[in-house]
Specification:
- With 662 residues, the chain is an alpha/beta fold.
- The chain contains 26 helices and 20 strands.
- A 6-stranded parallel β-sheet has the order 10-9-11-12-14-13, with helices on both faces.
- Strand 13, helix 20 and strand 14 form a beta-alpha-beta unit.
- The termini are far apart.
- Bound molecules: thiamine diphosphate (TPP) and magnesium ion.
- The site of magnesium ion has 6 residues, from strand 4.
Length: 662
């Protein structure tokens, strides 16, 4: 569609008007960024972006990521103006109010046209790297007829300043993700004031040094924007376009200053802006001819989508492509068969090794699994034999060497999961989950099926010492809503937990795995882990104690139980590989596992923070007992550490006897 500057300018002003009026109505929000980037975004949508408002989830659409999520009114305006069903003008009127899909920051689960949630600065761009990776992986697998799209990002100074930006662009440059295009809102303003207050780096030089192309434009000159975006589109490198803009452009007295970043313009300035822009319509009204231009450019997207659908209909692998994009797992019969064989075995292995062994079963059967590690492949045991490296030379590979970039990896995995068609998993040490914690939280918030393989999950890792020994990590991850935290006890639970992680399409998972060997405790394959907790060993004599343990401490709990039973004290061992799944069970099941019987002493055993375990123990006999570690570990062999910190039968049994006789 040929829209000349005289047509584009009022279209961009429609974004400005909606943004300033919505922020004013909400009495909170960020008008500066959408007003400043209105011209660039209009050119992007009018001339470059491949999208169809009638089919927001069309698989081969370009992905548009608003990394500067505070500028949410920009994307809400664009989606509404181009004709997406959501958001409606009423939603925009109710910007930031309860019930409106126009939340303060754009949320992927509220509006189909929002590809990922934006707000935590830097992560949108880093997720876009993952989207571009997924695009290349699927392109290499299914061919350019089915998969060939760009990932366009709008990012602000903040997104580029965040540390994660270094990780994200380094990865993108190394992987030569030429279909990733970042439009930088180069307005030289952040909340506190001029960017010179806090940064002096040569951003284009940094990007170029990372293997990117960099172009520049005047972000308020339509012809110049178009020229720069065309150069970006033509580049075969990941590309940054520095768009020189004026924050709050259109508000004559406030534009260019930091006050316009995150506060309503106020009635007087809005009136002045209307005058300055020549905008005579009432709030939330768009003149018919301007709306017609927006809608006709939105409607133009139907052609590319229809052509693609015809290609898909003729493609021999259409069914497989559709299955992967729908996020449905393939038939898992071979997986079930192997699990049945494993149950018959007697494997003493670390759960990280059990995970690797299981990955060698899963990965050949589930071709959409794309693994990786943040430079700990040999420690996380994340690479299946069938997986070739995913590199710039071979995008069909299914194993990503993320480098020492935990946060970048986690965000990229979120982008891959949200792109669809691949199921990402990646490893690091559990201790370094802190480095990527906000991305793990974002997996959960965005309902992304991202799977974290976090090994070396306790003092059981031994000699590397307290810097590497998680203490609070497992429990603190359980605090994140919509995140399944699995801590399997043996080879069978490890396989089950992997399966549960894969099956949870709208929930990310953490697999907390040991470095040290653990015996096989389970001799049945009934998918007991699916209930979150179950009785692994039943009391044989009169039950007085229930031992609740996870992961490596389940073996210890079994030994404690045996000693108690020898003394005539009956004890159940409850293995609880996933607190979240246990909490999701009905009351009857929970009661069956943990009966409300004040004569029974409940004891939790986990080599980590005890805080949180009271929920299962406090209401039991004499207030219950929590065996754990509420201090940093130490550097020594694992066996010595478990002894030193009281994770032995000799240390635990007397405590239980004391409690029983109290
Ligand atoms: C990780 C993170 N830290 C801090 C914030 C709070 N915050 C929101 S916008 C912003 C300033 C961003 O500046 P810039 O990207 O230049 O946006 P502009 O002011 O130009 O719109 C800050 C600090 C955030 N959203 N995310
Ligand atoms: Mg800025």
């Amino acid at each position: 569609m040929t829209l000349t500057s005289d047509r584009l300018a009022p279209m961009a002003n429609a974004i400005r008007a909606l943004s300033m009026d919505a922020v004013q109505a909400a009495n909170s929000g960020h008008p500066g960024m959408p007003m400043g980037m209105a011209d660039v975004a209009t050119v992007l949508f009018a001339k470059f972006l491949k999208f169809d408002p009638a089919a927001p989830k069309w698989a081969d659409r370009d992905r548009f990521v608003l990394s500067a999520g505070h500028g949410s009114m920009l994307i809400y305006s664009l989606l509404h103006l181009t004709g997406y069903e959501s958001p409606t003008m009423d939603d925009i009127r109710n910007f930031r109010q309860l019930g409106s899909v126009c939340a303060g920051h754009p949320e992927n689960f509220l509006i189909p046209g929002v590809e990922c949630t934006g707000g935590p600065l830097g992560q949108g761009l880093a997720m876009a790297v993952g989207m571009a990776m997924a695009e290349r992986q699927l392109n290499a697998t299914f061919g350019g007829d089915l998969v060939d799209h760009n990932t366009w990002v709008i990012a602000g100074d903040g997104c580029l300043m965040e540390g994660i930006n270094h990780e994200a662009i380094g990865l993108a440059g190394t992987l030569k993700l030429g279909k990733l295009k970042v439009l930088w809102d180069d307005n030289k303003i952040t909340i506190d004031g001029d960017t010179s207050l806090s940064t002096s780096e040569d951003i284009p030089a940094r990007y170029r040094a990372s293997g990117w192309d960099v172009f520049e434009c005047d972000g308020h000159d339509f012809a110049d924007i178009e020229r720069a975006l065309a150069e970006a589109a033509a580049s075969d490198k990941p590309t940054l376009v520095a768009c020189r803009t004026v924050i709050g452009k259109g508000a004559p007295n406030k534009q260019g200053g930091h006050d316009v970043h995150g506060a309503p313009l106020g009635a007087a300035e809005i009136e002045a802006a209307r005058e300055y822009l020549g905008w005579t319509s009432a709030p939330f009204e768009i003149p018919a001819e301007i709306m017609a231009d927006w809608r006709s450019l939105g409607a133009a997207g139907a052609k590319a989508r229809a052509e693609w659908e015809a290609r898909l209909a003729a493609a021999p692998d259409a069914a497989e492509f559709n299955r992967r994009m729908a996020g449905e797992l393939p038939d898992v019969e071979p997986i079930r068969k192997t699990l049945a064989e494993w149950v018959e075995g007697d494997a003493t292995v670390a759960t990280r090794k059990a995970s690797e062994n299981w990955l060698n079963v899963l990965a050949p059967a589930i071709p959409e699994m794309v693994g990786g590690s943040a430079d700990l492949t040999g420690s996380n045991n994340t690479k299946a034999k069938c997986q070739a490296p995913f590199t710039a030379e071979d995008y069909a590979g299914r194993y990503v060497y993320y480098g020492i970039r935990e946060f970048g990896m986690a965000a990229a995995m979120n982008g891959m999961a949200l792109h669809g068609g691949v199921i990402p998993y990646g490893g690091t040490f559990l201790i370094f989950s802190d480095y990527c914690r906000n991305a793990i939280r974002m997996s959960a918030l965005q309902r992304a099926r991202t799977i974290y393989v976090l090994t070396h999950d306790s003092i059981g890792l031994g000699e590397d010492g307290p810097t590497h020994q998680p203490v609070e990590h497992v429990m603190s991850m359980r605090l994140i809503p919509n995140l399944n935290v699995f801590r399997p006890a043996d080879v069978i639970e490890t396989a089950e937990c992997w399966n549960l992680a894969l099956e949870a399409a709208g929930t990310p998972s953490v697999l907390a795995l040991t470095r040290q060997n653990l015996p096989q405790l389970r001799k049945s394959g009934d998918m007991l882990s699916a209930r979150g907790a179950y009785v692994l060993r039943h009391a044989e004599v009169d039950r007085k104690v229930i031992l609740i343990a996870t992961g490596s401490e389940v073996e210890l709990a079994c030994k404690v139980r045996d000693t108690l039973e020898e003394q005539g004290i009956g004890a159940d061992v409850v293995s609880m590989p996933c607190v979240e799944l246990f909490e999701a069970q009905d009351e009857a099941y929970k009661h069956e596992i943990l009966p409300h019987d004040p004569s029974i002493l409940r004891v939790s055993i986990e080599a980590g923070t005890t805080m949180g375990w009271e929920r299962y123990t406090a209401a039991s006999r004499n207030g219950g007992l929590n065996i754990g570690l509420d201090r940093f570990g130490a550097s020594a062999p694992a066996k010595d550490l478990f002894a030193r910190f009281g994770f032995t039968v000799e240390a635990i049994v007397p405590k239980i006897l004391d409690k029983l006789s109290a």
